[in-house]
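INFO batch 0412 | record 1 of 1 | parsing
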Amino acid sequence: MQKHEKKFDRTVDENKTRIDAAIIAVLLMAYLFTGSTPVLLILLYDFIVRLYVRAWLSPVYLLSSYLLSKISFAKRVGDANSKTFAAQIGLAVVLFILAADFGASETWTLALSLFFVFWKILEASKNICFGCAFYALLQRYNIEIVAL
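INFO prediction complete | emitting tokens
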């Protein structure tokens, strides 16, 4: 195997990931406006099943698949490995938000939630993925990501 060759060549439709990001941003804003912890639990469930079980069990995946089937976009292929890495970071952020929420730390809950909403809005509107950029930076320095 060559030095820069990836072990797995996986791709993903970037339009779908942008719709996913928009749905997650809406859910996070619903949490910010209502303070309803079940919204965070839905996000936690969604990230866990999408990453570690089966994507088709994820409510965000199902909704974004449906929306993508109703909107005709030309398929835009992207690296699924970087998106998976970004989703793992997203899962960690949701866990930290939940911990701050359960710990009654309103400042941390608000700060982390606003950061994540900002991240997801940029991903949905401008296709700027912080987790993907971080993944690319690590790859540039030959740092292999095995798992988070």
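INFO post-check: The chain is about 70% helix and 5% strand.
INFO record closed
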